[in-house]
Amino acid sequence: MADPAEGELDEKPPPSRAQRIIYVILHVLLHVVFISYFTAATIIFILYDKDSDDCWPNRGSGATTESTDNSTEDYDIDDYEDVEEETTEKPLPEVKPKLLCTINWCHGYGFLIVMFILFYILWLYYWAFKPFVGIKLYNNYLEPVIDKWIEFSRQWIVSGVMLAIVIAVVVAYLGFECRNDAFKAIGLLGPVCFVIIGFAVSKHHLQVPWRIVTHGLLGQLLLGILCLRIPFGRSVFQCLGDKVTIFLNYAQHGARFVYGDRICDEYVFAFAILAVVFFFSVITSIMYYLGWMQFILNGFGFLLQAMVGTTVCESVNAAGNVFLSMTESPLVIRPYIEILTVSELHAICTSGYATVAGTVLGAYVSFGAPASFLIAASVMAAPGSLAFAKLFYPETEESLTRSDNIRLERSTDTSILDAAASGAAAALLIVLGIVSNIIAFLAIVFFLDAVTEWTFELIGLHKITLLYILSQIFIPIVFVMGVPWHDCQDIGLVVAQKSFINEFVAYRNLGILVSDKKVEPRSAAIATFALCGFANPGSLGIVIASLSAMAPSRRSDITRVAFRSYFAGSFVSFTSASLAGILIQNEHMDGN
């Protein structure tokens, strides 16, 4: 792929008349095929729904009836007329077609409906509304209003008043959530303490963009409310997570053919897990060749930059990390990593540490972690990672990846096969770097742990390891997250295991604590959020290796920010845990 820093690409020559005619014909055929397929699927769904007569909703207690039986078994679809003739005091219950009662909007025909609607909304917007109405509307009306609002809102008095209002509303809402359990209010200390610590260790204290920090933390809270308090939001993200996991699991077919079933079934990391990197690298390379990835970067980048204030690449990477891993998500912005500022590289690393991949959620669930909590934690981490990234390492350079100046480059590959081959070749260096760095970093960590234990044994203190020392440090940290004091020792230990070893070990031990009923359900729920991130020594090596393979000239900058972003990513998970401890209701914990 071409280097986006080399300059703007030459515009394509205008298509000839014959090319335009062919393009229109293909465009029409696409719509004919898609609409025909949707129509056929609809007909087949209706005809082959064997229970499609009717479905009966439960009647409310306020229904007028002479019978005390509220069940629907007294009615039959063939007896409606007889029932109506017999009495006028017993109204018929509302009848809905079975078709509308049994649609699964995440799978099968229901998902096809969603795709059909979204496709034509986007098509109408980009082919009808935007060129004929949208551009003029934006240039003549919206852009001047937005510019005036930005100028007005960035006055320090206005910004201060708005910030005070936002803080007051947030505190009032969280206080309302704590009305039935005063101890939950301790969780309010968590975000406050983490922000104060982040500011204390910030690289540039005077350049901290408090607007981005505030927007990111507010987005983290709003997404938490959406995922934990609104069933629809939880279902949407659950569906998205399932789709991403299903898609990435197709990499296992290639891995099983090359390595064999035994290695893949035993989840040998270097073979079974990292196969996803090859697959996703090929997919992103093909999408760049087709121009789809540039479209995603432009759309998502503009939206997230407008909402949070961060640049295109760091925003898109944070959004991708919701379901992708720290090695897969940067592949989306691979051509631009060379020109990122140091602060943007720090944000890329922080997003990777703060989230987990959809491909490993199943492993965490097998240890007893509720899937709904894991998805909520990963979603909440996206805006939170941007907030803490800019708090720990504020921007002091001129970014080249803002929505108004990013150069959306075209792929230099000559065909789809060429793009796939180049993507696979690029993934090889990434995988080799990941494996070598994990081996080295984990070896160093366990060596330091052994040295610590040996040092204390010489003075008569046994079983004092580096992990034990860290667990004691984490006791006050988990307490301000909202964990009851009597559970802080156990929860502090699993958080230390996650930070010192990895989250797999931590989730396994948390599952044991829950099954043995050694910790309260709320403590376990808070720990589930605190552990949901890749911030561990092995991931430190993964980040350095993967990003360095994508941008070799930036290795020194990547290694410089990798360790700082490790702590920033950890604080994102801890903040999500604090907010979740307030938002989670008792019925959620009972249901999970």
Concise description?
Keywords: Cell membrane, Membrane, Transmembrane, Transmembrane helix. The protein has 592 residues and is mostly helical.
Tell me what you see in this structure.
The chain is mainly α and 592 residues long. It has a domain at 154-445 and 531-591. The chain contains 26 helices and no strands. It has helices at 17-47, 80-86, 98-101, 108-153, 156-177, 189-200, 210-228, 231-248, 251-259, 261-265, 269-273, 275-290, 292-307, 312-320, 329-332, 342-354, 361-366, 371-392, 416-457, 466-480, 488-500, 503-515, 521-531, 537-550, 555-583, 586-591. Helix 7 runs antiparallel to helix 18 (371-392). The protein is globular. Residues 1-10, 52-90 and 92-99 have low confidence and may be disordered.
Rg from alpha-carbon coordinates? 27 Å
Question: What portion of residues is helical?
Answer: 55-70%
Uncertain segments are 1-10, 52-90, 92-99
The number of helical runs is 26
Shape: globular
Q: What is the averaged pLDDT score?
A: 79
Q: Can you summarize the main beta sheet?
A: none
Topology summary:
Layout: H1 17-47, H2 80-86, H3 98-101, H4 108-153, H5 156-177, H6 189-200, H7 210-228, H8 231-248, H9 251-259, H10 261-265, H11 269-273, H12 275-290, H13 292-307, H14 312-320, H15 329-332, H16 342-354, H17 361-366, H18 371-392, H19 416-457, H20 466-480, H21 488-500, H22 503-515, H23 521-531, H24 537-550, H25 555-583, H26 586-591
Keyphrases for this structure?
592 residues, mainly alpha, 26 helices, disordered N terminus, Gate_dom, Sodium/nucleoside cotransporter, CNT_C_dom, C_nuclsd_transpt, membrane
